[in-house]
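User: Could you check the structure of this?
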Amino acid sequence: MRKSLIFIIAVVVTAATLFFTFNFSGCTASLDEASASQLKNDVYDIYEELKPIYLDSKDIYEVRDHMYEWGKEHGFSVSKLAGGNLVITKHPSRNKKDSPETVFQCTMSQDNYKEHCQTAAIALAAMKNASIHGQVSLILTADIEGKHTGAKMLSRSYLNTDYFMNLEYSPETAVYTGSAATAEYSMSCPLTKSETAADKAYEITITGLSCVDSSDCSKKHPNPIVTIADLLTNCKSGGLIIELAEFNGGTSACKFPSSATAVIVVDQSSETKFLKKLEKCQDDFTDDYYNDQPNMDFEFKEVQVPSKVISEKYTSNILSLMYTTVNGTYSTTEEDGEGDPTALANKGSISTKEDFELSMCARAADNGLLEEMDGSYRKSAELSDMKFTIKDETPCWPFSDGGDFYKLLSSAGSQGGLDMPEPSSTFKKSECAVFYKKTNDINMISFGVNNGSSFEQSKTLVYFLSFVCLEK
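Assistant: Sure, the predicted structure tokens are below.
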């Protein structure tokens, strides 16, 4: 995504115009040294205040109740909303009641709570320290297990605002103006078990991998579920006599699994070849990923032969499904597989504890491509005698250049000492897509923030709120 020369000039002119207006029109937005120091302290202090609220509450509704009290104590207007949501509002500054309205929105979740505390602290510190602003609100949308429950229940009336800015955690400062369509798949079947005549069994365990969101395509991530499945397929195709007793791993369809374990029963006639293949798999996996995953551990050991194993029919169906379903990059911008990814898939969890279930997450640059993926994975499941279910689906938020919204934010970043990146689209499962589905003319940007640049990012929001006032 490239900025044209005209767009760059427009941003520079906008920044210069805003700087001149604020510094020479009597509507001064610049933060003096004392104000900047107060803002910096507030970003840190609010973050520290929020952490025990998010960590120690019994559920998200108790978090919401504590945040309600926090907002009241700090002089904001606060309202509880349906779905566990909360809105914290600061009314317009003097003579700015007719200025455009801004809504910040953050996820309120106890999962990865430090990240959610950070995004809220950045927004709240900016609201507290802004001296020139129209009405500004922070909406905290409740979320449990990434289902965007609060976002789905948020009334459209809160989306009908002049500027709607989602704040989400990002390792580097980012601006998103579009997001992928996503879906979570379940492929399952009942299992039957049978007795085994084999006299050897091995447990394979891969642990210690990073359990991060599978939207990250900046580098190749290990998937222990796929690694073990590929090993078993290789053994079967090589004529080795093996049986599957159990295969479990991962916790979420949308995250790279941090671990996986399988128990394999091996006929004595195949043991030597099996161990050679297993040792090679271990060596290759370690060589490929140890530098990026220093906490990883790939082990195997001989264990007691289980009394029963998964029947041959269902073992074959499981391996067929694992072989025919794509994991990783599903499609790219180039037909030969080169270019940027346009669709991703992740085998996030697998279980044979009762029935068999494989959970996957699909991400696509547009809704049509996701529909193609739905059909492809459904067909693979059916060919392997599996039930296919779409558990959750989020539509695409179409990419745009951000228009005047981005220009204002970029100018504010320049004033705030932040090098604002160009707008991009993300593969993340985004609440913005939920909001876009509700109101497709929403003026919305997602601002990726983090602990490392939290002061500059909060200062950028202070300037943004001031710059907005120039419009009326």
